[in-house]
Write a structure and sequence with these properties.
Layout (H helix, E strand, L loop, with lengths): L7 E8 L1 H5 L7 H10 L2 E9 L3 H14 L2 E5 L10 H9 L3 E3 L1 H13 L6 H4 L3 E3 L3 E3 L8 E4 L2 E4 L3 H11 L10 E7 L7 H10 L4 E9 L2 E10 L2 H17 L10 H6 L1
Parallel strand pairs: 1-2, 1-3, 3-8
Antiparallel strand pairs: 4-5, 6-7, 7-8, 9-11, 10-11
Length: 261
């Protein structure tokens, strides 16, 4: 009997009033989800919350209890509204303290630039008791990890550097594979057939991604899962359906690739 490997799951918590207001567009989700997917960690949920203690604490506690890993972005800078560290400490019921290594790193960083290491910049060295640091090779101010929660900066370049340091420490699962079949047909014309196909393969995720162009409406059928044989069967079934409908297949990037463009 083949041993079933339990899924390794993740959630992302995006923290910041500027994201909710639309002034800042989040550019981190696609990177984090893609990086996790490559090692078999399945992103299951994403939340965006404002810079409010109760909101952040409630979201962190809900997500860390439900998923293998939680990744937060935003709110660890030097200003008064950067309260993520305070919120994480409150969520875990621990003290927030000046981390000696973080202080040393920041002092050296600002001294090298002949910039004052003032109280505001020192805020970035406040780390919840028991947490370990996440290296920041871009701007020095570290992120941190406490139990299954990883706390990172919101600036994409810094967040990506932190994430690259986190990835080797994670326990991955079975890597997801996917197939994509595309045709110039409205999604409503195949919705019922795809619903039946999903019922036949409950361990796969089958999604429909519509698009519109000069030739009218089209759809990409994307199936994801760990069972390569089942994916191949779904691919053949979808192709057979399109052929029966008299629809030629179209070469088109998968939706995940379009997100990267």
């Amino acid at each position: 009997m083949t041993e079933t490997i339990p899924p390794v799951t993740a959630a992302m918590l995006i923290i910041g009033n500027e994201v909710l207001s639309g002034r800042t567009q989040d550019k981190n989700l696609a990177f984090v989800a893609g990086a996790l997917g490559e090692i078999g960690v399945d992103m299951r949920e994403v939340r965006i919350v404002q810079d409010e203690m109760d909101e952040v604490v409630g979201a962190v506690n809900a997500l860390r209890a439900r998923y293998t890993y939680v990744f937060t972005t935003g709110g660890i800078g030097p200003t008064h509204d950067d309260i993520t560290a305070d919120c994480i400490a409150a969520a875990f019921g621990v003290k927030l303290e000046m981390h000696p290594i973080a202080v040393q790193l920041l002092e050296a960083h600002y001294e090298a630039q002949d910039i004052e290491f003032n109280a505001a910049r020192a805020r970035m060295a406040r780390i919840p008791e028991g947490a370990s640091l996440i290296d920041n090779p871009v701007s020095t101010a570290p992120g941190f990890r406490i139990e299954n929660v990883h706390v990172m900066a919101g600036v994409p370049k810094i967040m990506q550097a932190m994430m690259e340091n986190i990835l080797p420490t994670l326990q991955g699962g079975e890597t997801l594979s996917s197939i994509t079949v595309t045709a110039q047909v409205p999604e409503g014309s195949i919705a019922e057939a795809m619903e039946k196909l999903q019922g036949k393969y409950p361990d796969l995720s089958i999604g429909l991604y519509p698009f519109y162009g000069a030739d009218g409406a089209g759809v990409s059928v994307v199936a994801r899962g760990t069972d390569e044989a089942a994916l191949a069967q779904v691919e053949q079934s979808v192709k057979a359906l399109f052929t029966k409908m008299g629809m030629a297949l179209i070469e088109r990037p998968a939706p995940s690739e379009l997100l990267k463009a």
